[in-house]
């Protein structure tokens, strides 16, 4: 079952969730919008580098089911579950979307 994109990310023009971006496509973190059942994810994702303005990209997706995702944020590489990646809002690095949403 596909993880639903957080409503805040869906409503923001020009934003995508990290789980939906193409492989090896640099994006910029705009924000983290954790699900109601796991508000602690915001602090955890911030601590490992998912802060607004940081460059991020998905390097590969696990098989089967595209879970987990291997993600590079800054100079670090992590494995994230799709549910965790779904709450990370990203924008094109060259877009004005980052400045508008930050």
Automatic annotation (TrEMBL):
InterPro entries: Fe-transptr_FeoA-like (IPR007167), FeoA_core_dom (IPR038157), Transcriptional_repressor_C (IPR008988)
Keyword Phosphoprotein assigned: no
Keywords carried by this UniProt record: Iron
Pfam families xref list: FeoA (PF04023)
Domain Ferrous iron transporter FeoA-like, first and last residues per copy: 16-92
The organism's place on the tree of life at top rank: Bacteria
Keyword Cell division: no
SMART domains in the record: FeoA (SM00899)
Name of the protein described by the UniProt record: Ferrous iron transport protein A
Organism this protein belongs to: Limnobacter humi
